[in-house]
Amino acid sequence: MKKTLIASVALLTLTACQGKSGNEQELSYLLENPLFAERYSEAMVDTMVELEIYEDPITNDEAKMKIIDKTKEKWLEVAQKSRADQRNGSKGSFTAIKEFTTGEVLFSDGKIYISPDFVSAPGPSLHFFLSTVVDPRDAAFPDETAIDIGLMRSNLGTSRYDVTTDVEPIKYRTLVLFDTELERIYGFAQISPLYK
């Protein structure tokens, strides 16, 4: 009985210390990625608009319509902010070389953001590298300018990587997905500034 009571108190303490649920923390973290924020917010707005277009019975309830309108307004603002954030960075799309790789990348404020639609074939030790070489097929890779920004966390979907080295985005215009064990380039993205 005493052990059960102690275990229950410990569990309640841990639960109380967590504050927000894991899903709320996860969504707020993902929304820091402007590529994810744009896609998520546009989907949210589309969902609310479709309720009205298809005259869903829920739209007959005035209180629910206020929620729908408030939700549309909130997520339209998020979409606009995410597009503005993207214009402050450098953006590009992956080109596959040896293995399937697709998706978008944004380099902004010392971070590399990978888009929700990113997909790559998996590999034993895939790393993202920033390089000044525009096309990594034109030089031995990794070249002397290549900066390893980390092991790829997932071959599917949204992710974010901090660029810890002081890098001038205008010079480092290529993000390369390279397997350090196989010494094989999977793909790369040429990233360039978006003009306002």
Describe this structure in words.
The chain is of the alpha+beta class and 196 residues long. The protein folds into two domains: 2-87, no CATH class; 90-193, no CATH class. 37% of the residues lie in helices and 26% in strands. It has four helices and eleven strands. The chain has helices spanning 2-18, 22-30, 34-53, 62-87, and strands at residues 90-96, 101-102, 104-108, 111-114, 119-120, 126-131, 147-151, 159-162, 174-179, 184-190, 192-193. Strands 1, 3, 4, 6, 7, 8, 9, 10 and 11 form a nine-stranded antiparallel β-sheet that branches. Helix 3 (34-53) runs antiparallel to helix 4 (62-87). The protein is elongated, with a radius of gyration of 22 Å. The N and C termini lie far apart (66 Å). The model is unreliable at 1-20 (pLDDT under 50).
Features:
196 residues, alpha+beta, 2 domains, nine-stranded antiparallel sheet, two-stranded antiparallel sheet, 11 strands, disordered N terminus
Compile the SSE list and pairings.
Blueprint: H1 2-18, H2 22-30, H3 34-53, H4 62-87, E1 90-96, E2 101-102, E3 104-108, E4 111-114, E5 119-120, E6 126-131, E7 147-151, E8 159-162, E9 174-179, E10 184-190, E11 192-193
Antiparallel strand pairs: 1-3, 1-10, 1-11, 2-5, 3-4, 4-8, 6-7, 6-9, 9-10
Give start-end ranges of low-pLDDT stretches: 1-20
Largest beta-sheet details: 9 strands, antiparallel
Beta-strand residue percentage: 25-35%
Number of strands: 11
SS content category:
alpha+beta
Count the helices. How many?
4
In round numbers, the mean pLDDT is 89
Total separate domains: 2
Share of helix among residues? 25-40%
In angstroms, what is the radius of gyration?
22 Å
Strand and helix order: HHHHEEEEEEEEEEE
